[in-house]
Amino acid sequence: MNTAFLLMAQFNKAIVPLEQISKDYFALEPRTAANYAKAGKLPVPAFRGGEGNKAPWLVNVNDLAAYLDKQRDEAKKDQIHNRAA
Predict the structure, then answer these.
(1) DSSP 24-65
(2) Which residues, other chains included, contact 43 with Cβ-Cβ below 8 Å and sequence gap of 6+?
(3) Residue 80 and residue 85: Cα distance in Å, rounded?
């Protein structure tokens, strides 16, 4: 299955608020995730949904999907490497 397609089906949109995904996908509380976004420390690009400090941080599901796929691929490599050792 295509990860981006499944995420779009889950959220019914291509751009999701960071606060909706921070706990499930980054193990961060929404406030911490917003601080990370502001500092450029999230593993995916995040951007403000408007002008000003109160605008929500947003993430494109394609970027999130690429990150999740990369994490999965690395886990598979580690698992294969550990079996061979």
Answers:
(1) HHH---HHHHHHHHHHT-SSS--EESSSSTTSPEEEEHHHHH
(2) 26, 67
(3) 9
**d(Cα 71, Cα 79) in Å, to the nearest integer?**
12
From CA 63, how far away is CA 65, in angstroms rounded?
5
Q: Which residue has the tokens 């698992």?
A: 79
Instruction: Specify the pTM.
Output: 0.88
| Residue type at position 38 | K
Length of the chain: 85
Q: Which two tokens stand for residue 9?
A: 């089906």
CB 37 within 8 A of CB 57: yes
Task: Fill in the amino acid letter for 61.
Answer: V
pLDDT in tens, 15-48: 999 999 999 999 999 999 999 999 999 999 999 9
